[in-house]
Specification:
The protein is α/β, with parallel strands linked by helices and 513 residues long. Helices cover 39% and strands 17% of the residues. The chain has 3 domains: 210 residues, 2-enoyl-CoA Hydratase, Chain A, domain 1, CATH 3.90.226.10; 194 residues, Alpha-Beta Complex (2-enoyl-CoA Hydratase, Chain A, domain 1), CATH 3.90.226.10; 34 residues, no CATH class. Strands 10, 11, 12, 13, 14, 15, 16 and 17 form an 8-stranded mixed sheet that branches. The protein starts with a helix and ends in an 18-residue tail after the last helix. The structure holds hexanoyl-coenzyme A.
């Protein structure tokens, strides 16, 4: 065997060992997989090809010249998931805590460049103590090189970030600029400044978990789109998410074969309650309309008065945005508007058709909402729908009141087909509120004001608490029965498969951020 061959084998063996057995054992004690185990689990068997296995850092300060680890704390390469090409990097916490050096950053950048050149998704498995402290500004520069690429490739290839350990300081901004973030419960956290700095600056006592754990970001900040019980669950969710998404912005969605039958769904006829004040679970409508068990919800516990997620309709991948009457009666507020706007924009980037289910009594009133910018955030959703050129179909199941009617993918802002169930109520506001305003004098001077209000309410409801006025004007294309809705939607999306829209020539719009 030649010397070089021996050297190669020795170096490869060292690279596979990462930071050594003790550190690997520590990683396992924390119930975390190693970088290599994660990649192995994520990718199709034997599909991983590593790039940069023999890279080492170039730091000579603080005795670092004696601390050489092949791969330098990040495993990078490509492989396949369900037979489709992906590029992946996995930070190796066993080597300098997965910290990011100049060369570690170069490896990630190389993978990002290859991913965009070859039109394949980029998956980052993050588990890092942040900037390599021994390297100073070189490592900060490395972060910025990654951030810059995150932005350049945004909208060209899907970018997914898994947080599977620490992710702190400026490091959080790479995941924040990718399309989806998924955090592992209990073993991961994300924050700009940690508990110690928080204590010093604000005198607050807070644990890492409370400050930036998976639950915090899934419910309070909305920073993470998904959470996972453990590493394996996290990697499984990445695979499922990718199954709905095209490889890049020029591809169509990855559809699966489906044989059409009659497609009537009679269980949908019994969902809308007798009174419009009684809530119902919009998820029942979603599952009635979509292929069995195909709904993959995003941001489940954040802004839950709106549902967003992917599903399949006759085997085709679509994005769903739906008001949820079970939470805050399905109103639009700051969080739900932001959440839905981001989702709509993702689907529009990647040619994923949108189905919008509407049951919305308006925007949430109050100082909290106004002072937190409901005007700006509601505008985000309006803007996102208005600029989306993917196939867009709306189904109004019940209320479509006020400005929220316009915002929720109305015909006026470019939806392709707008359907309504006979239970739809399309009006400026609910019958009671409307009657109190427009019949105020008549009601206050009546012998029995309460009775008069009821009478006027019924009169208003008779006129507007239905879809027919909107249908007469063509704002609704067709009033359809719940049981035939799946069939109608399948046909509607089929006609839109080759939709083309030419936008006005511009650098980019100015979405209200
Ligand atoms: C170099 C690091 C490191 C770092 C950890 N290590 N972080 N080495 N640079 N940033 C090393 C440790 O020295 C240790 O080496 C090994 O990784 C494992 O770390 P432990 O502390 O033993 O692990 P644990 O107890 O799990 O704690 C993990 C941790 C802690 C919370 C991440 O290591 C930590 O606080 N690290 C420093 C974090 C930090 O301040 N980073 C810089 C942030 S500023 P040995 O040899 O003992 O195994 C930043 C700016 C980015 O990132 C700006 C971008 C724009």
């Amino acid at each position: 065997m030649s010397d070089n061959l021996k050297k190669l084998e020795a170096r490869q063996a060292l690279a596979l060992l990462g930071g050594g057995e003790k550190r690997i054992a520590k990683q396992h004690e924390k119930k975390k997989l190693t970088a290599r185990e994660r990649i192995q689990y994520l990718l199709d068997e034997n599909s991983f090809e590593e790039i940069g296995m023999l890279v080492t850092h170039r730091c000579t300060d603080f005795g670092m010249e004696d601390e050489i680890y092949f791969g330098d704390g990040v495993v990078t390469g490509h492989g396949t998931i369900h037979g489709r090409l992906v590029y992946v990097y996995a930070q190796d916490f066993t080597v300098f805590g997965g910290s990011l050096s100049e060369t570690h950053a170069e490896k990630i950048c190389k993978i990002m460049d290859l991913a965009v050149q070859n039109g394949a998704p980029l998956i980052g498995l993050n588990d890092s103590g942040g900037a390599r402290i021994q390297e100073g500004v070189k490592s900060l520069g490395g972060y910025a090189d990654i951030f810059y690429r995150n932005v350049q490739v945004s909208g060209v290839i899907p970018q997914l970030s898994a947080i599977m350990g620490p992710c702190a300081g400026g490091a959080v901004y790479s995941p924040a600029m990718t399309d989806f973030t998924i955090m592992v419960e209990k073993t991961s956290y994300m924050f700009v400044t940690g508990p110690n700095v928080v204590k010093t600056v604000t005198n607050e006592d807070v644990s890492s978990e409370d400050l930036g754990g998976a639950q915090t970001h899934a419910t309070k900040s909305g920073v993470t789109h998904l959470t996972a019980l453990n590493d394996v669950d996290c990697l499984e969710k990445i695979k499922t998410l990718l199954s709905f998404i095209p490889q890049n912005n020029r591809e169509k969605t990855p559809d699966i074969a489906y044989n059409l039958s009659d497609e009537y769904r009679y269980e949908l006829d019994n969902i809308i309650p007798g009174s419009s004040n009684i809530p119902y679970d919009m998820k029942r409508v979603v599952s009635g309309l979509m292929d069995a068990d195909s709904f993959f919800e995003i941001h489940e516990n954040y802004g839950d008065n709106i549902l967003v997620g992917f599903a399949r309709l006759a085997g085709k991948s679509i994005g769903i945005v739906a008001n949820q009457p079970m939470s805050l009666a399905g109103v639009l507020d700051v969080n739900s508007s932001k959440k839905a706007a981001r989702f709509v924009r993702f689907c529009d980037c990647f040619n994923i058709p949108l189905l919008v289910l509407v049951d919305v009594p308006g925007f949430l009133p109050g100082t909290d909402q106004e002072w937190n910018g409901i005007i700006l955030h509601g505008a985000k959703l309006l803007y996102a729908f208005s600029e989306a050129t993917v196939p867009r179909v709306t189904l109004i199941t019940r209320k479509a009141y006020g400005g929220a009617y316009d915002v929720m993918n109305s015909k006026h802002i470019g939806a392709d087909y707008n359907f309504a169930w006979p239970t739809a109520e399309i009006a400026v506001m609910g019958a009671k509120g409307a009657s109190e305003i427009i019949f105020r004098n008549e009601i206050s001077t009546a012998d029995n004001p309460a009775e008069k209000l009821q009478e006027k309410e019924a009169e208003y409801a008779e006129k507007f608490a239905n879809p027919f006025r909107a249908a007469r004007r063509g704002f609704i294309d067709e009033v359809i029965l719940p049981n035939e809705s799946r069939r109608k939607l399948i046909k509607a999306f089929k006609t839109l498969e080759n939709k083309r829209v030419h936008r006005l020539d511009k650098k980019h719009g100015n979405i209200p951020l």
